[in-house]
Write a structure and sequence with these properties.
Chain lengths: 147, 147, 147, 147, 147, 147, 147, 147, 147, 147
């Protein structure tokens, strides 16, 4: 058994039980974004969180241990994602990549937006012309320092 | 002359004149995100916008015409960006890609978040532990339809 | 079990039972194009559609549930398809890609043809010099907007 | 000088003169799809057609000769196109590739749709919910033969 | 079971029984080139041919059905083949590719040699300095047409 | 100046002068296949041959020297050729690669068909259903030896 | 002119003048590691630093401005470096990558070592069996946080 | 069974038993860096070391033998690692690669830092602004020699 | 069962029995280089050789048959080998590739060194500064011929 | 000017003057293998050697300085070389890679053959069946050490 097996167990259990990610997150008292990423094998759970997930998805003990091990991250099977929904995010990076760079450097100087000290929130934005996906991201700015 | 040449002219002029993207955007009365993307060769300008940019960056007439031609989009030289700032966005897609997919489908059903009917806003978020980059994205949800 | 397993079950059942895609589509009262794509793991079925397919292909209950889960899309094993029939479509994009772009922008301005709000129809076109494959595609034009 | 240089000359002249592809095609009495592809370096012109284009775009004599030489085809700079409009066509092949294959084989048996004995037509389809891009493709079916 | 499994069954049976491709082809009354390609998963057999192969290789009924399904073609595990014999053919395309193109266009104009309406014959050519592999290929010329 | 420059000079001169490869070959008293490959930068000419080509294409002296230097071979800009004519040959290797291997090993044992001690001949094959491209290849079989 | 041009100017001037990186760094009063990276186009200089470098390398004014613009980072022409010295570092990441991961997570929990809030020092380590390259790296640990 | 299977056995046993790499290393009396790399399939153990590991992880006899066989090295599933922690090291090579090269050649002349006659040490560096990962590397300099 | 399975059987048996390649080769009365390559799935054995290997490694009858079938050659899992020992050979080709080409053409004219009519010998070269790996290669020169 | 420019200057001068690598090497009193590699941009020359080469090839002073700068090594334009002569060496690594590994480890234990402390010699081996290319390589064995 490895962490990928645990991810597959969780997805299978979710399909069989008809659970929603939002409900899984509520059970842990955390955001749906972080909990979903964790269940999909991208984050590390504390022992208490892992036990709760084990109960919810009826996982064996070994799986509960694996949830506490830092996973090898990266959730996509190919560098350029073939899935249309995920590709649109890839496209945003491709089209707006140099714009992100230009504007962040203009505001903050040389450095990056952290993808580690990072949080995000994804909600529905009602719109008469068709509802919209609304995403808020917040990442700490980390400056390059001279030495 | 092609659109890439015009992008290079704009970047050179910006370095020489010490302009800021925010000021360029203000001159056009539009967001700094869209205007920067356009100046970096990713969007198409109207004749009036193109003329204004031509004055601002002292571009030749032919360049002003090129700004009104729809460009071949994609701003990055390699599939996996080597620049650390842009890579962090690539990493977010890699780590959170399946999470975006799971949560959007849970909320909206099968479909995508449009990267075309899309807007975004990038600001500084003050934080005593170190300021943060704050990004808001809004893209129309487009459902797959059966036929 | 995952969605790929369900796709393989459907293909195996189709070979064993000698079914035709056209008949499968008729059973659901939908186009053969959309139904085939769905059976090959690219679209999401409603509960009623999934139950009908489950009966037709004698699928287990879990498989019927998987048909209602949005799949990770992309039907090809390699970026450049090795199969000659599919490659011809890849070649059309390679040869006519810039032509599609030039003509759609000339007619509609900057934007794209949606691959989501999209339908297509594939028929036989009788021709004395040899019958032809006739394909009609219709995708909503989505304009880029300034903001 | 080579054919790529001629393509760039044509695009530059078109931008400077503000010509439309449709008008260029009308001048030759042919479809806008084939003429545009040819001007973008994908098709071969007859001597008469080349002379007409030379006049229209004010090309030097050597360029007129190059238009009559069969070009090395393929109009895109990367295997997976970064341009959003062209990518949508790539995505259609990725998502519907196995569907094209299944339905054409079901109707015609083993073989391919020719991308050489091929024609297409791209038009605007009026729609109250937003106009659509309408594309009709017709390619001769070529059967594999046993020998 | 899928077509790849059937190909492996055939290869295993061939090794166990010590059959020769030439004899397999003779049993079907067809060329060894086409029959070998079909047994290696690249061509589609008629019901009668499939039954004969089923008897010869002692295949189960389901395998016999799979032989009649059009396969996803492409016989090599990597784009550049590592096997030295197959690589030499890849090298011929690499070294002589532009020569094939130049000479076929000189003789026939713009178009291609069909790889579908195609036959070939591979024989031993006796030579006192060492026997040679002699290959004859014949593919229909398909012209590009203006429209 | 390098060999690629010489290849471009030859192609430009050929377009300007309207020469045919067949005539170029006749001038050297050799096959059109080998001479075309050489002019396209894939073979090495003797001093006498180089001088003849220099006269024919009006090349400078330095170019005549370069024609006698062994070139870095490989005539295609990408691993998978985008040009439809050349791709068909790539496809033949992809589809028939394992067939070539199986049949040559069946006839000759372990070894390869040489792509060096190799000759080929490309002709028009008249056919009432449409003329065909006829190619004959002959390569020495080279056996692997035990040691 | 762009930043790459400035990097090439600096390297050419360094070769012509016979300067050493250590001396360049001393002139700026900073480490040789950071200054070399900056001169090679990977870091951003302050106006004072840029002026000093401009004097040292006799750069034109525009180049001095470019040194103050945040560069598009990434110093290598290929993903897997062909240069043997640089490849050894790539090999260390390949062989020890999972070891870095295991040990940092064991000591710190889930998170990363920053490559931005980072410094390093490269010195000669005398050794009777042959001197050694001694490298010290120090990067801030950044923990993933739950949210 | 192969060496990869043994690596998976070790990782599974470590998760189940809750062992720490540091303790495993202490049992062998060696550094945690080398022992972890070895357990992750990158180094070769002596018979005594292998027996100790076999006891610690309760490995079968065949696994203990495999630990003494030189493994096929390389610990990462993709050329560019998707895991954020490991990617940061890849980024250091990308950003500082030419700097490593410049400074080592300046100090030592032409040659490389050995990745074989190499040792490293990874520790926690306390820092009031947040603890840091401290890594010391030492590799023998190997000069290219003329001959 | 296929040839890869046989290779794995041989390697497993070798580890279990503690055999040396040199002894395996001696049993067949052939060089250790050719026999090792054959056991690793790169060469074809005669019936007598296959039977001897079957006895030595206690292989099943079917495996003995597979050893006599020409394998699909290529022993490495990635194009650029990650294993440091094998990479050094890849590096030699990368660094010295154009040197091999220049010197062989200078001595022999246009052609290649055969990798088929090839033998090699790998021995220990005692050296007081550290023993050396000594490799002798001999491949027949094959000239390109004009035709 | 950069090192690549110097390499091109040397090759052009060699073609114009009709020099042989062997003679160039003799002028420096070194092996033809090392000197050719150096002239092709892979090795670093001492000031005396660089001056001699400058005289021989009539290089400008700046080029003579560049010959003394350690180059960015790697002589091939693509990872898999398209040139048939160089490809044969690539093929040897592909086919014999695991054999090199197995035999060197059997003789020396875990470690590598150095590609830095390395020398080679390439000669003609007369053979009545056709002369052969004879290559002798000698690289120091470098053992991995435990620490």
């Amino acid at each position: 058994m490895n962490r990928n097996d645990v991810t597959e167990m969780i997805i299978e259990a979710k399909v069989k039980k008809g659970l929603r990610w939002e409900d899984v997150a509520a059970r842990l008292g955390l955001s749906k974004e972080w909990v979903t990423a964790g269940c999909l094998g991208q984050m590390t759970f504390s022992p208490e969180q892992a036990v709760l997930l084990g109960e919810l998805f009826e996982l064996p003990d070994e799986a509960v241990k694996w949830l506490q091990v830092v996973p090898y991250k990266g959730s996509l099977p190919t560098t350029v994602p073939t899935d249309p929904l995920i590709y649109r995010f890839h496209e945003l990076v491709s089209v707006y990549g140099t714009t992100f760079k230009a504007l962040i450097h203009e505001e903050f100087g040389d450095g990056i937006m952290s993808a580690i000290d990072f949080r995000m929130d994804l909600t529905r934005e009602a719109d008469p012309k068709g509802d919209r996906v609304h995403i808020t991201m917040s990442g700490k700015f980390l400056p390059y320092r001279t030495y």
